[in-house]
Design goal:
Elements (H helix, E strand, L loop, with lengths): L1 H15 L4 E4 L4 H6 L4 H7 L1 H4 L9 E4 L5 H11 L6 E4 L7 E5 L1 H16 L4 E5 L7 H14 L9 E3 L7 H14 L7 E4 L2 H13 L9 E3 L5 H4 L7 E3 L2 H18 L6 E3 L2 E3 L14 H31 L3 H12 L5 E8 L19 E9 L2 E2 L3 E4 L6 H5 L4 E8 L2 E10 L6 H36 L9 H18 L3 E8 L2 H8 L1 H18 L5 E4 L4 E7 L3 H21 L8 E8 L9 H27 L4
Helix pairs in contact: 1-11, 6-7, 8-9, 12-13, 12-15, 16-20, 17-18, 18-19
Length: 628
C-alpha cells in the first residue's frame, strides 16, 4: 500500500520538477502489538521526523497507514506547528486536506456486487479496529448497500477484527455461532474490511473443511498482491494508492501555482472480481505468475540476507573505524537493493546521543563516511545537517529516502538511499537498516571495550609515574623473548639500573625532586633504546632493560647515552644535587633444551635478574667509594 503511494508521488514529482525527500519510519501498528516494550526503538526511529526544519520546505505530503501510535503522535505534534500546506494521502484525517479513496462508494460496490451478481442476502462484515479512521465509513457503506436493496442492517453481523490474518479464526467462530442462533449453517457471504483479514478468514475456513466460494463467498479490500495471487484469488476493492500519491503532489502544485485552496479529493477504487466470490472458476490457477512473483520475492530476501551476513562478518573483522566504513561501502553495494546509498554520521555519534525536542532547528556538521552513487564509492565529505543532503544530491531531480540510523533511542546519524524501485519495499529494507544500526553499536561497544582493556593493561603493566612497563611487564616480555631466543639461539640481555641515593634526594630536596630524578632516568632510558630494548621500572629506585640478540657493546652504548642524558638534564635544570645510576648486566643465550612451562620461565627470569643485580651492586659499591 505505502509503496504504491510512493510510486505515485515520485512519478508526479519527476513530471513537475519537484524535489521529493521521504523521511521514513519503520514503526507500524502491527509490530507494536508484539513489541510494545520496545518503545525505545520508536524513540530512535522517529528522529527521522526531527531531522528536517519543515519551515525550509514548500509543502508536506503525509502518508497515512504507516505509523504506530507513538510515531503517529510524535509526527502530528510536529505537523501541528508548521505553516506550510499539508496533504494527507492513503487515509482520511480531518486536520488535513485529504487525497483519499472514496471509501463508501468503493466498499459499497463490493457489497452491491455480492447482492446483484450472486444473489446474496445474508452478509456478514469483518470490520477493522474501532479506532481506525476508515472502520466506520466501511461499516456505513456495508449498511447502505444492504438497505439500498431492502436488506435490513443488523449490527450483530458486524465483527470487529484486527485487520490481520490472526482475526480469521475468532471471526469465523463468532459468525458461525450467530448463524446457528438463526438456524443457518453458513452465511451467504462475508465482507472483510481488508485483504489480510480475508486471507485469515479463508485459511480458517479451509482448516474446518468449509469451501470458499462453495459454501461461503468471501471478499477483501485493498487489492493487495497477496490476496489477488492467492488460491482462491480474493475478490477485492483495489484502493487507488498510486493515484492518490500522484494526485497529492498535483494538489500541492495547484495550490502553489494556481492559488487553488487545498480540499479533499476522493478517488474511486476498482472492483476486482476473482475466485473467492465465484466470478472466476476455481480451475483457473495462475500458478506460473504466482511462482514468478514469489520467486522474485524470495530472491530479494535471499540477497538481503546474504548482504546482511556479509556485512556482519566484514564489520566484525574490521580492525579500524576506517576499515569498518570501507566494508559498509563494499557490502552495501552488493544485493542490498540500493542504487545510491550514503551513510551520514553526526558529530560524536558514538556517545549515545538522545535527540531533544528542538533538534530540527539545530545545525551541525554531518559526515559522509560510507556509501556509493551508482557504481562509484563516495569520498568522505561533510555538509550541514540543515541541507539534509550533500550538494550533488540536493541539486538533482531524484527522490531520496532518509532513515534514522540509531540503536534503540540513541541517534547516530542517517542513511540516504535511492532504491532500485521508486518506492522502497519496507519489509526488505527494515531488517537491513536495523542491522546496520546494531552493527555500528556493536562496533562502538567493541571500540570502547578495547580502550578500556588497553587502559586496564596499562594500569596493570605500566608504572604510573614514568609510564615505563612495571614488574608485570617484565614477566610478559621476558617469557616472550626467552621462547624466541631459545629457538634462534641468540642472547637475551637484562640490565639492572638503580638510581643512586634516592632516599637522600627525597629527604633533603623533597619528593618532587625524587620524582624528577626518576622521570629523568626513564626519559633517558627511552632515548637510549636504539636496539629494540624494553624499558621497565620494577621498584622504587630500580629499573630494568630487557632486549633480544644483545651484546656487551650494545649495553655499553645504551648506558653511555643514558648517563649523558642525565648529566645534560641536571646541568640544564640547574639542580644542586648529583644524579647517577648504577648498572649491572646479564647477557646469556637460553639453553636449547629446556621446558617452557611458566614456572620454569619465571625461574629463568629471576636468574637473569639475580646475575644483573649482583653486577649492579658491585658498581654501586664503587660509586659509594667515589669511583664515578
Amino acid at each position: 500500500m505505502t509503496h504504491a503511494i510512493q510510486e505515485g508521488i515520485s512519478k508526479a514529482a519527476l513530471e513537475l520538477g519537484i524535489k521529493i525527500i521521504y523521511f521514513a519510519s519503520f514503526s507500524d501498528s502491527f509490530s507494536n502489538k508484539i513489541y510494545e516494550h520496545y518503545q525505545h526503538y520508536d524513540e530512535g526511529d522517529t528522529v527521522s521526523f526531527e531531522l528536517p526544519d519543515l519551515d525550509d520546505f514548500d509543502g508536506i505530503i503525509r502518508i497515512d497507514l504507516t505509523y504506530g501510535p507513538y510515531s503517529l503522535e510524535h509526527l502530528d505534534a510536529r505537523l501541528s506547528k508548521v505553516k506550510i500546506p499539508i496533504v494527507n494521502v492513503g487515509g482520511y484525517d480531518e486536520r488535513y486536506a485529504n487525497v483519499v479513496n472514496d471509501e463508501e462508494s468503493t466498499f459499497a460496490n463490493i457489497v452491491d456486487h455480492l447482492i446483484t451478481k450472486h444473489g446474496c442476502k445474508d452478509i456478514y462484515h469483518i470490520a477493522g479496529l474501532r479506532e481506525r479512521h476508515f472502520t466506520q465509513p466501511r461499516i456505513n457503506a456495508y449498511r447502505d448497500a444492504l438497505e439500498k436493496h431492502g436488506i435490513p442492517y443488523d449490527e450483530n453481523k458486524v465483527y470487529y477484527g484486527t485487520l490481520w490474518h490472526d482475526c480469521g479464526d475468532p471471526a469465523l467462530d463468532y459468525i458461525l455461532a450467530d448463524c446457528a442462533k438463526h438456524g443457518k449453517k453458513y452465511p451467504d457471504a462475508i465482507v472483510c474490511a481488508n485483504d489480510y483479514s480475508a486471507v485469515g478468514l479463508i485459511d480458517a475456513c479451509h482448516q474446518r473443511g468449509i469451501e470458499v466460494p462453495g459454501d461461503i463467498l468471501v471478499t477483501g479490500y485493498d487489492g493487495l498482491e497477496e490476496a489477488i495471487q492467492g488460491y482462491p484469488s480474493i475478490s477485492t476493492g483495489a484502493q487507488p494508492f498510486s493515484k492518490s500519491g500522484y494526485e497529492g503532489v498535483y494538489a500541492l502544485h495547484d495550490y502553489w501555482t494556481k492559488n487553488e485552496p487545498l480540499k479533499d479529493r476522493l478517488i474511486l477504487g476498482e472492483l476486482l472480481c476473482n475466485q473467492s466470490c465465484g466470478c472466476k472458476p476455481m480451475n483457473s490457477y495462475n500458478i506460473e505468475d504466482i511462482r514468478s512473483i514469489y520467486t522474485r520475492r524470495l530472491d530479494r530476501v535471499a540477497d538481503l540476507a546474504q548482504s546482511t551476513t556479509n556485512l556482519i562478518l566484514s564489520i566484525s573483522s574490521a580492525k579500524t573505524m576506517e576499515e569498518c566504513f570501507n566494508e559498509i561501502t563494499k557490502n552495501s553495494s552488493i544485493d542490498s537493493g540500493f542504487t545510491d546509498m550514503l551513510l551520514c554520521l553526526a558529530p560524536n555519534w558514538e556517545d549515545q546521543r538522545v535527540v531533544g525536542p528542538d533538534f530540527s532547528k539545530e545545525d551541525e556538521e554531518m559526515t559522509v563516511v560510507a556509501g556509493f552513487i551508482g557504481d562509484t564509492p563516495v569520498e568522505k565529505e561533510t555538509f550541514r545537517k540543515k541541507d539534509l543532503l550533500p550538494p550533488d544530491l540536493l541539486s538533482d531531480p531524484n527522490p531520496y529516502y532518509i532513515f534514522a540510523i540509531h540503536h534503540l533511542q540513541y541517534y547516530m546519524g542517517y542513511l540516504v538511499v535511492s532504491p532500485k524501485n521508486l518506492a522502497y519495499e519496507s519489509m526488505f529494507m527494515k531488517s537491513w537498516i536495523v542491522n546496520l544500526g546494531s552493527m555500528l553499536e556493536n562496533w562502538r561497544i567493541r571500540h570502547k571495550l578495547n580502550l578500556a582493556v588497553q587502559r586496564l593493561e596499562k594500569i596493570y603493566n605500566r608504572d604510573m609515574l614514568t609510564d615505563l612497563y612495571n614488574r608485570h611487564g617484565y614477566e610478559m616480555f621476558f617469557f616472550q623473548f626467552f621462547k624466541e631466543c631459545r629457538i634462534d639461539q641468540i642472547p637475551i640481555g637484562v640490565m639492572m639500573i638503580d638510581m643512586d641515593d634516592l632516599k637522600y634526594v627525597n629527604d633533603t630536596h623533597g619528593h618532587a625532586e625524587g620524582d624528577y630524578s626518576l622521570c629523568t632516568i626513564a626519559d633517558g632510558m627511552r632515548l637510549a633504546s636504539k636496539n629494540g630494548e624494553v624499558c621497565l621500572r620494577t621498584g622504587g629506585d630500580e629499573f630494568v632493560v630487557l632486549a633480544k640478540n644483545y651484546s656487551e657493546e650494545k649495553a655499553n652504548e645504551y648506558v653511555k647515552i643514558l648517563r649523558d642524558h642525565i648529566d645534560e638534564c641536571i646541568t640544564r635544570d640547574k639542580k644542586d644535587y648529583n644524579l647517577s645510576v648504577s648498572v649491572g648486566t646479564c647477557i646469556k643465550v637460553p639453553p636449547r633444551e629446556c621446558s617452557t612451562d611458566e614456572s620454569f620461565l619465571r625461574a629463568f627470569s629471576e636468574e637473569y635478574l639475580r646475575i644483573a643485580d649482583a653486577a649492579m651492586y658491585e658498581e654501586k659499591k664503587e660509586h659509594k667509594a667515589g669511583g664515578r
